Protein backbone atom coordinates (compact mmCIF):
# COMPACT_ATOMS: atom_id res chain seq x y z
CA UNK A 1 0.00 0.00 0.00
CA UNK A 2 1.48 3.34 -1.04
CA UNK A 3 2.10 5.92 1.65
CA UNK A 4 -0.02 9.10 1.43
CA UNK A 5 1.74 12.12 0.04
CA UNK A 6 3.01 14.56 2.63
CA UNK A 7 1.96 18.20 2.19
CA UNK A 8 4.73 20.35 0.74
CA UNK A 9 5.33 23.65 2.56
CA UNK A 10 7.82 25.94 0.80
CA UNK A 11 9.52 28.90 2.47
CA UNK A 12 10.93 31.41 -0.02
CA UNK A 13 13.95 33.30 1.30
CA UNK A 14 15.46 36.32 -0.40
CA UNK A 15 19.22 36.82 -0.08
CA UNK A 16 19.96 40.54 0.21
CA UNK A 17 22.70 42.77 1.58
CA UNK A 18 21.19 45.24 4.02
CA UNK A 19 24.45 47.22 4.16
CA UNK A 20 25.30 47.58 0.48
CA UNK A 21 27.78 50.31 -0.44
CA UNK A 22 27.89 52.56 -3.50
CA UNK A 23 31.16 53.55 -5.13
CA UNK A 24 31.17 57.39 -5.21
CA UNK A 25 33.17 57.46 -8.45
CA UNK A 26 31.60 54.74 -10.59
CA UNK A 27 28.18 54.52 -8.93
CA UNK A 28 28.39 50.70 -8.80
CA UNK A 29 26.75 48.87 -5.90
CA UNK A 30 29.20 46.78 -3.87
CA UNK A 31 27.88 43.96 -1.69
CA UNK A 32 29.57 41.84 0.94
CA UNK A 33 28.31 38.25 1.43
CA UNK A 34 29.31 38.42 5.10
CA UNK A 35 26.62 41.01 5.76
CA UNK A 36 23.93 39.50 3.54
CA UNK A 37 21.07 37.25 4.52
CA UNK A 38 17.28 37.03 4.84
CA UNK A 39 15.11 39.81 6.17
CA UNK A 40 13.18 39.53 9.43
CA UNK A 41 10.01 38.93 7.42
CA UNK A 42 11.65 35.97 5.64
CA UNK A 43 12.85 34.55 8.97
CA UNK A 44 9.30 34.81 10.25
CA UNK A 45 8.03 33.06 7.12
CA UNK A 46 10.48 30.19 7.68
CA UNK A 47 9.33 29.77 11.27
CA UNK A 48 5.70 29.68 10.15
CA UNK A 49 6.62 27.09 7.50
CA UNK A 50 8.37 24.89 10.06
CA UNK A 51 5.41 25.02 12.45
CA UNK A 52 2.78 24.37 9.78
CA UNK A 53 4.80 21.49 8.32
CA UNK A 54 5.00 19.91 11.78
CA UNK A 55 1.27 20.36 12.39
CA UNK A 56 0.35 18.94 8.96
CA UNK A 57 2.94 16.13 9.06
CA UNK A 58 4.41 17.54 5.87
CA UNK A 59 7.75 18.58 4.41
CA UNK A 60 9.30 22.01 4.84
CA UNK A 61 11.62 23.08 2.02
CA UNK A 62 13.53 26.39 1.95
CA UNK A 63 14.08 27.86 -1.54
CA UNK A 64 16.05 30.90 -2.65
CA UNK A 65 16.88 32.45 -6.01
CA UNK A 66 20.37 33.77 -5.38
CA UNK A 67 24.08 33.34 -6.22
CA UNK A 68 26.39 30.81 -4.59
CA UNK A 69 27.19 32.84 -1.42
CA UNK A 70 23.51 32.50 -0.45
CA UNK A 71 24.06 28.83 0.38
CA UNK A 72 24.88 29.88 3.95
CA UNK A 73 21.30 31.09 4.21
CA UNK A 74 20.03 27.65 3.19
CA UNK A 75 22.41 25.90 5.61
CA UNK A 76 20.92 27.97 8.42
CA UNK A 77 17.45 26.85 7.31
CA UNK A 78 18.58 23.21 7.43
CA UNK A 79 19.98 23.74 10.90
CA UNK A 80 16.66 25.18 12.09
CA UNK A 81 14.77 22.09 10.94
CA UNK A 82 13.97 22.37 7.22
CA UNK A 83 13.67 18.95 5.57
CA UNK A 84 15.36 20.08 2.35
CA UNK A 85 16.63 23.18 0.56
CA UNK A 86 16.95 24.33 -3.04
CA UNK A 87 18.93 27.14 -4.64
CA UNK A 88 17.85 28.51 -8.01
CA UNK A 89 20.88 29.91 -9.82
CA UNK A 90 20.82 32.44 -12.63
CA UNK A 91 23.44 32.45 -15.44
CA UNK A 92 25.72 35.48 -15.40
CA UNK A 93 24.36 36.57 -12.02
CA UNK A 94 26.94 39.30 -11.56
CA UNK A 95 25.92 41.07 -14.77
CA UNK A 96 23.17 43.67 -14.77
CA UNK A 97 20.18 41.33 -14.74
CA UNK A 98 16.86 43.16 -14.34
CA UNK A 99 14.99 42.25 -11.17
CA UNK A 100 11.33 41.77 -12.07
CA UNK A 101 8.73 40.29 -9.77
CA UNK A 102 7.02 38.52 -12.67
CA UNK A 103 10.17 36.89 -14.08
CA UNK A 104 11.42 35.98 -10.59
CA UNK A 105 8.10 34.30 -9.80
CA UNK A 106 8.18 32.43 -13.11
CA UNK A 107 11.67 31.06 -12.38
CA UNK A 108 10.72 30.06 -8.83
CA UNK A 109 7.46 28.40 -9.88
CA UNK A 110 9.22 26.36 -12.57
CA UNK A 111 11.97 25.24 -10.18
CA UNK A 112 9.52 24.28 -7.42
CA UNK A 113 7.28 22.28 -9.71
CA UNK A 114 10.16 20.55 -11.49
CA UNK A 115 12.27 19.66 -8.47
CA UNK A 116 9.76 19.42 -5.60
CA UNK A 117 6.28 18.96 -7.04
CA UNK A 118 3.09 20.92 -6.51
CA UNK A 119 3.29 22.87 -3.23
CA UNK A 120 0.42 22.92 -0.73
CA UNK A 121 1.56 26.19 0.79
CA UNK A 122 4.20 28.78 -0.12
CA UNK A 123 5.30 31.26 2.55
CA UNK A 124 7.39 34.37 2.01
CA UNK A 125 8.07 37.72 3.60
CA UNK A 126 5.82 40.64 2.76
CA UNK A 127 8.71 42.55 1.14
CA UNK A 128 12.48 42.34 1.01
CA UNK A 129 14.90 44.53 2.95
CA UNK A 130 16.39 46.04 -0.22
CA UNK A 131 13.37 48.24 -0.95
CA UNK A 132 11.43 45.46 -2.64
CA UNK A 133 7.96 46.09 -4.00
CA UNK A 134 6.37 42.97 -2.53
CA UNK A 135 4.93 42.00 -5.92
CA UNK A 136 6.60 38.58 -6.22
CA UNK A 137 4.03 36.69 -4.05
CA UNK A 138 1.16 37.91 -6.25
CA UNK A 139 2.96 36.90 -9.46
CA UNK A 140 3.89 33.55 -7.90
CA UNK A 141 0.26 32.85 -6.95
CA UNK A 142 -0.73 33.57 -10.55
CA UNK A 143 1.98 31.23 -11.88
CA UNK A 144 0.93 28.41 -9.51
CA UNK A 145 -2.79 29.04 -10.00
CA UNK A 146 -3.57 29.21 -6.28
CA UNK A 147 -4.99 31.63 -3.71
CA UNK A 148 -3.01 34.48 -2.16
CA UNK A 149 -3.13 36.20 1.23
CA UNK A 150 -0.85 39.09 2.15
CA UNK A 151 -0.08 41.25 5.16
CA UNK A 152 -0.47 38.34 7.60
CA UNK A 153 0.59 38.70 11.23
CA UNK A 154 -0.61 35.27 12.45
CA UNK A 155 -0.89 31.83 10.88
CA UNK A 156 -2.15 28.55 12.32
CA UNK A 157 -3.00 25.14 10.91
CA UNK A 158 -5.52 22.79 12.52
CA UNK A 159 -7.78 20.02 11.22
CA UNK A 160 -6.71 20.60 7.64
CA UNK A 161 -7.62 24.30 7.70
CA UNK A 162 -5.25 27.24 7.45
CA UNK A 163 -6.34 30.23 9.55
CA UNK A 164 -4.73 33.65 9.27
CA UNK A 165 -4.94 37.10 10.80
CA UNK A 166 -4.33 39.97 8.40
CA UNK A 167 -3.40 43.54 9.25
CA UNK A 168 -5.66 46.25 7.87
CA UNK A 169 -5.49 50.03 7.93
CA UNK A 170 -6.48 52.06 11.02
CA UNK A 171 -5.36 49.30 13.39
CA UNK A 172 -7.99 46.82 12.24
CA UNK A 173 -7.52 43.06 11.82
CA UNK A 174 -9.22 40.54 9.54
CA UNK A 175 -9.48 36.81 10.20
CA UNK A 176 -9.20 34.59 7.14
CA UNK A 177 -9.75 30.94 6.31
CA UNK A 178 -7.18 30.51 3.54
CA UNK A 179 -7.99 27.81 0.95
CA UNK A 180 -5.14 25.53 -0.02
CA UNK A 181 -3.00 25.60 -2.09
CA UNK A 182 -2.04 29.18 -1.37
CA UNK A 183 0.79 31.71 -1.36
CA UNK A 184 0.98 33.70 1.88
CA UNK A 185 3.23 36.65 2.64
CA UNK A 186 3.78 37.41 6.32
CA UNK A 187 4.95 40.42 8.26
CA UNK A 188 7.67 40.18 10.94
CA UNK A 189 5.24 40.40 13.86
CA UNK A 190 5.01 38.36 17.04
CA UNK A 191 7.25 35.48 15.92
CA UNK A 192 10.98 34.85 15.76
CA UNK A 193 12.94 32.10 14.07
CA UNK A 194 13.88 29.28 16.43
CA UNK A 195 17.46 28.79 17.55
CA UNK A 196 19.26 25.94 15.79
CA UNK A 197 20.72 23.15 17.88
CA UNK A 198 24.48 22.58 17.79
CA UNK A 199 24.34 19.08 16.20
CA UNK A 200 22.03 20.36 13.46
CA UNK A 201 24.30 23.34 12.83
CA UNK A 202 27.36 21.10 12.48
CA UNK A 203 25.52 18.70 10.17
CA UNK A 204 24.31 21.57 7.98
CA UNK A 205 27.88 22.82 7.46
CA UNK A 206 28.71 19.75 5.32
CA UNK A 207 25.30 19.25 3.69
CA UNK A 208 25.06 19.30 -0.10
CA UNK A 209 22.94 22.16 -1.44
CA UNK A 210 20.91 21.19 -4.56
CA UNK A 211 21.18 23.77 -7.34
CA UNK A 212 19.04 24.24 -10.44
CA UNK A 213 19.43 26.80 -13.19
CA UNK A 214 16.74 29.38 -13.78
CA UNK A 215 16.31 32.52 -15.81
CA UNK A 216 15.04 35.97 -14.84
CA UNK A 217 15.54 37.66 -18.21
CA UNK A 218 12.88 40.29 -18.54
CA UNK A 219 10.91 40.83 -21.71
CA UNK A 220 11.98 43.91 -23.69
CA UNK A 221 10.02 47.07 -23.00
CA UNK A 222 9.19 49.52 -25.78
CA UNK A 223 8.69 53.17 -24.86
CA UNK A 224 6.44 54.91 -27.39
CA UNK A 225 6.23 58.42 -25.94
CA UNK A 226 7.41 60.24 -22.84
CA UNK A 227 5.12 62.88 -21.39
CA UNK A 228 4.28 64.28 -17.94
CA UNK A 229 1.93 62.26 -15.82
CA UNK A 230 -1.61 63.61 -15.88
CA UNK A 231 -4.01 62.10 -13.34
CA UNK A 232 -7.45 61.13 -14.52
CA UNK A 233 -10.14 63.69 -13.73
CA UNK A 234 -12.47 62.77 -10.89
CA UNK A 235 -16.08 62.38 -11.99
CA UNK A 236 -18.62 64.23 -9.84
CA UNK A 237 -22.42 64.41 -10.17
CA UNK A 238 -23.71 67.66 -11.76
CA UNK A 239 -25.52 70.23 -9.58
CA UNK A 240 -29.27 69.56 -9.48
CA UNK A 241 -30.24 73.28 -9.71
CA UNK A 242 -31.33 74.78 -13.03
CA UNK A 243 -30.41 78.37 -12.11
CA UNK A 244 -26.85 79.15 -13.39
CA UNK A 245 -26.09 81.20 -10.26
CA UNK A 246 -27.08 78.36 -7.92
CA UNK A 247 -25.13 75.89 -10.02
CA UNK A 248 -22.03 78.08 -9.77
CA UNK A 249 -22.42 78.40 -6.01
CA UNK A 250 -22.78 74.63 -5.73
CA UNK A 251 -19.64 74.00 -7.80
CA UNK A 252 -17.48 76.53 -5.94
CA UNK A 253 -18.85 75.69 -2.49
CA UNK A 254 -18.98 79.38 -1.60
CA UNK A 255 -21.92 79.06 0.82
CA UNK A 256 -20.98 75.73 2.37
CA UNK A 257 -20.42 75.62 6.10
CA UNK A 258 -16.86 74.78 7.07
CA UNK A 259 -15.69 74.05 10.58
CA UNK A 260 -12.66 76.24 11.33
CA UNK A 261 -9.57 74.48 12.68
CA UNK A 262 -8.96 74.72 16.39
CA UNK A 263 -6.09 73.86 18.71
CA UNK A 264 -6.84 72.05 21.96
CA UNK A 265 -4.24 72.48 24.69
CA UNK A 266 -4.68 70.41 27.84
CA UNK A 267 -2.56 68.62 30.39
CA UNK A 268 -5.22 66.03 31.15
CA UNK A 269 -4.75 62.85 29.07
CA UNK A 270 -8.39 61.84 29.58
CA UNK A 271 -9.65 65.18 28.29
CA UNK A 272 -7.33 64.96 25.26
CA UNK A 273 -8.62 61.43 24.51
CA UNK A 274 -12.24 62.63 24.78
CA UNK A 275 -11.55 65.48 22.37
CA UNK A 276 -9.97 63.10 19.88
CA UNK A 277 -12.84 60.61 20.12
CA UNK A 278 -15.40 63.36 19.70
CA UNK A 279 -13.61 64.57 16.56
CA UNK A 280 -13.53 61.06 15.09
CA UNK A 281 -17.25 60.59 15.81
CA UNK A 282 -18.05 63.89 14.15
CA UNK A 283 -16.13 62.84 11.04
CA UNK A 284 -17.85 59.46 10.90
CA UNK A 285 -14.83 57.28 11.76
CA UNK A 286 -16.45 55.91 14.92
TrEMBL record:
InterPro entries attached to this UniProt entry:
ETF_a/b_N, ETF_b, Mft_EtfB, Rossmann-like_a/b/a_fold
Q: Where is the Electron transfer flavoprotein alpha/beta-subunit N-terminal domain?
A: 26-221
Cofactor or coenzyme needed? FAD
Q: Mind telling me which Gene3D superfamilies this protein's record contains?
A: HUPs (3.40.50.620)
> Subunit arrangement?
Heterodimer of an alpha and a beta subunit.
Q: State what this protein does.
A: The electron transfer flavoprotein serves as a specific electron acceptor for other dehydrogenases. It transfers the electrons to the main respiratory chain via ETF-ubiquinone oxidoreductase (ETF dehydrogenase).
Protein name, UniProt field: Mycofactocin-associated electron transfer flavoprotein
What species was this sequence derived from? Prauserella endophytica
Lineage of the native species? Bacteria, Bacillati, Actinomycetota, Actinomycetes, Pseudonocardiales
